[in-house]
């Protein structure tokens, strides 16, 4: 579990690239500059860890591209101490970014192998989400709701109603919507019934799966 000057140099370059691609949030860039992404992926990919690319992790899933992580996190506008729900823990990299921003993080993963691996990894890196859960994120985490923000890190064919219901008034839900490719979508809860919808560019995610094992 080495984190060397060479890795730091590569992270500096990655952050420079993310700035060039339009990421502006200094707190997000600082988190990416700090987190050892090479420790979240298989060591055979270590040399590529700081390229702006998605990579395979276990259970045929992927660690999201750093630009995507930065873009989604920037849209979430996380403030210290906010309660954030992540759907799709995967490698735990996005979870780590949220923790570094000072959020109280809840995260759900439906692949048991990834759930266990990430639950084991994060404490070793000194990263402590409030709650990691194994289950179907389509349902959210009603027992811990409401949340200031919800981030979905898999492509969803539609917006799960449970997630909308678990968002605080004023809260933000960031979700990639679509089947083949996804449109990054931000919903802001205006009141009990109304949500304001904003759409951003196209992205590509592994699918958010409902009721399947
Ligand atoms: N945030 C992760 C992204 C992993 S890819 C990272 O940075 O590594 C998306 C993840 O969503 C996968 O791990 C997949 O297993 C998970 N997923 C898909 N459908 C899900 C569901 N219904 N509930 C919870 N997790 C789900």
From TrEMBL:
Recorded superkingdom: Bacteria
A single GO BP: methylation
Signal peptide: none
Record-listed E.C. numbers: 2.1.1.77
Coiled coil regions, renumbered to chain: none
Similarity field: Belongs to the methyltransferase superfamily. L-isoaspartyl/D-aspartyl protein methyltransferase family.
Protein name, as recorded: Protein-L-isoaspartate O-methyltransferase
Species of provenance: Flavobacterium nackdongense
């Amino acid at each position: 579990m080495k984190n060397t000057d060479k890795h730091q140099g590569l992270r500096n370059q990655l952050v420079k690239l993310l700035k060039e691609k339009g990421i502006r949030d200094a707190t997000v860039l600082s988190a990416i500059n700090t987190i050892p992404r090479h420790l979240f992926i298989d060591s055979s990919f270590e040399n590529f860890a700081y390229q702006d690319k998605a990579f395979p992790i276990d259970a045929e899933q992927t660690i999201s591209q750093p630009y995507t992580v930065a873009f989604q996190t920037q849209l979430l506008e996380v403030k210290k101490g906010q309660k954030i729900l992540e759907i799709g823990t995967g490698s735990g990299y996005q979870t780590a970014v949220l923790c570094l921003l000072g959020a109280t993080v809840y995260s759900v993963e439906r692949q048991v192998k990834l759930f266990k691996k990430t639950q084991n990894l994060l404490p070793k890196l000194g990263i402590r989400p409030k709650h990691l859960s194994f289950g179907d994120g389509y349902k959210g985490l009603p027992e811990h709701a409401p949340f200031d923000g919800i981030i979905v890190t898999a492509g969803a064919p539609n917006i799960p109603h449970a997630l909308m219901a678990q968002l605080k008034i004023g809260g933000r839900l960031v979700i990639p919507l679509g089947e083949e490719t996804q449109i990054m979508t931000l919903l802001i809860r205006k009141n009990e019934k109304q949500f304001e919808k904003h759409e951003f560019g196209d992205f590509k995610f592994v699918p958010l799966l409902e009721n399947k094992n």
